[in-house]
Amino acid sequence: xxxxxxxxxxxxxxxxxxxxxxxxxxxxxxxxxxxxxxxxxxxxxxxxxxxxxxxxxxxxxxxxxxxxxxxxxxxxxxxxxxxxxxxxxxxxxxxxxxxxxxxxx
Length: 105
Known about the structure:
The chain is of the alpha+beta class. It has one domain: Histidine-containing Protein, Chain: A (2-Layer Sandwich). The chain has helices spanning 5-8, 17-35, 60-71, 99-103; strands at residues 42-47, 50-57, 78-85.
């Protein structure tokens, strides 16, 4: 079941550092569910109303999807996307995508 931004966290003005950590973990889970972005290869930092993404993804759709997920969070006003694309991802990487993304269901 996809996360709704309203389910993830309260408005940014009420977020504590602990809430930032929980929000970052939820964002990583949402990016995995929606775009098969490996949470062990991506790092999320949240400060005030800003998200910084860093790490590596295999496909351009993942790079764009990560930004979409971050901007969907309540209270987030900007995303600093430092994600890079892995050079030449191999075909077997498709096998790591969640089943619902492979079948298109």
